[in-house]
Design goal:
405 residues; mainly beta; Neuraminidase; 5-stranded antiparallel beta sheet; 28 strands; globular
């Protein structure tokens, strides 16, 4: 029999001193349970990360574990209100200050470096007009609302954006020196454009190309050459030409949750209007998060491009912000971890057949729980990391404690 510890402890606040591990947080999915499959077990490290004393995190829409097992977090300082950052605006004698956009932590949770902001990217802009009539004028390339983070094996950092006019992916060195970019802010031209993007959600650099989940205005995956960033390929659901049109107007957070559009459709021939992640998996696979349709679509890279492999449906009946938000893999490639935004779970799937064998987490504000679970990644020891947006605004570490029996 598989030995599982209760998740009841997740409902109470934890009094901790660093380091501190809460009870193992894994549940069996009774509808899919396979007693013959051992499952990785986790405990949440409630003392991680160790932020500088005066720092407070904003929304965290990006996460990456680099080749040296350092953990990178993409943060939105612009999501913090005046009472959050009283030390910056003179309203508090105690705390806190907004962090930069990009944060790198070591395994112990110590902050190694931080950087970000418009001064690091090309161009500059000003606002003309006042209040709701104000408009941005200029050619500044730093996103108004950062979204998506990837760190490649050369330790270069890739960032996207889904705010007003954020049709760009930027590439920086480890220390935040600008290298190059894909697309141009304020310029978009639909699903078939080979030059412009439409609010890219996620990036994956590897092999000989860069993949972009171009998914908040457009509804597609687009691929560029790794060396020259020349256009190579684009596709929509099932590997076909992208369909379904584009989002009308700019995306804002009020559109992140939608229950009046007919609900998820896991058989849709088009991606939904939030193509949220793209990740290269083992065996030349590519995993795409079609969040609005509560599914992953899996493709395989071939000499002729990509071919569709299968749909993997995640909690189909779920509404609201929907489910499939991000994907990561165990170090041995045996397990797939899927972040489920609405249900506040990390699903555990067996990669060989994508059978759901368990999960951990639930909606809530205590260690091991999630509010708007956004991103997931795994280090070389099998430890899992997550980030949250909206009012979640945190990063968590789940230490792998062993396998079920």
């Amino acid at each position: 029999m598989r030995k599982l510890l209760s998740t009841a402890a997740m409902g109470a606040a934890l009094l901790v001193s660093a380091p501190a591990l809460a009870d193992t947080l894994v549940e069996v999915d009774s509808e899919h349970v396979n007693e013959d499959v051992p499952m990785p077990m986790f405990a949440v490290d409630a003392s991680w990360p160790r932020l500088p004393e005066n720092m407070i995190l904003g929304q965290a829409p990006g996460l990456a574990v680099d080749k040296d097992d350092n953990i990178w977090v993409l943060n939105r300082p612009n999501s913090l209100g005046f009472s959050d950052i009283g030390a910056d605006n003179g309203q508090s004698i105690a705390c806190c200050s907004a962090p930069p956009h990009v944060l790198q932590f070591d395994q112990e949770g110590n902050l190694l470096r931080s950087w970000g902001g418009p001064d690091l990217a090309p161009g500059e802009s000003t606002m003309e007009g006042e209040g709701r009539d104000a408009v941005e004028v200029g050619d500044e390339q730093w996103p108004a609302n950062v979204h998506g983070l990837f760190v490649d094996d050369e330790m270069n950092v890739w960032i996207g954006g889904n705010g007003g006019g954020d049709h760009v992916v930027l590439n920086f060195t480890t220390d935040g020196e600008f290298i190059r970019q894909i697309g141009t802010r304020q310029s978009t031209d639909g699903n078939l454009s080979e030059q412009f993007l439409g609010n890219p959600a996620d990036i994956h650099y590897g092999g000989e190309s860069v993949l972009v989940a171009d998914g908040y205005i457009n509804k597609r995956i687009i691929e560029f050459g790794a060396d020259d960033l020349a256009f190579e390929h684009l596709w929509g659901a099932y590997g076909a030409e992208p369909g379904g049109g584009t989002r009308d107007g700019e995306f804002d957070q009020s559109q992140a949750s939608s229950t009046g559009d007919g609900g998820p459709n896991p058989e849709s021939t088009s991606f939904g209007d939030i193509v949220h992640c793209v990740t290269r998996g083992p065996d030349d696979t590519i995993y795409v998060c079609d969040r609005r349709n509560n599914r992953l679509q899996i493709f395989r890279e071939t000499d002729d491009g990509v071919e569709f492999v299968e749909d993997v449906v995640i909690a189909l009946e779920t509404g609201g912000t929907r489910t499939a938000s991000d994907v990561a893999f165990s170090p041995d490639g045996k397990y797939v971890y899927v972040a489920d935004m609405m249900n506040g779970r990390v699903w555990i799937l067996l990669r060989e057949n994508h059978e759901i064998i368990g999960w951990f987490g639930r909606n809530g504000r205590y260690p091991g729980q999630f509010i708007w679970l956004h991103s997931v990644d795994v280090d070389s020891e099998g430890n899992v990391y997550t980030t949250e947006v909206s009012t979640g605004r945190r990063v968590q570490r789940f230490v792998m404690t062993g396998m079920s029996e």
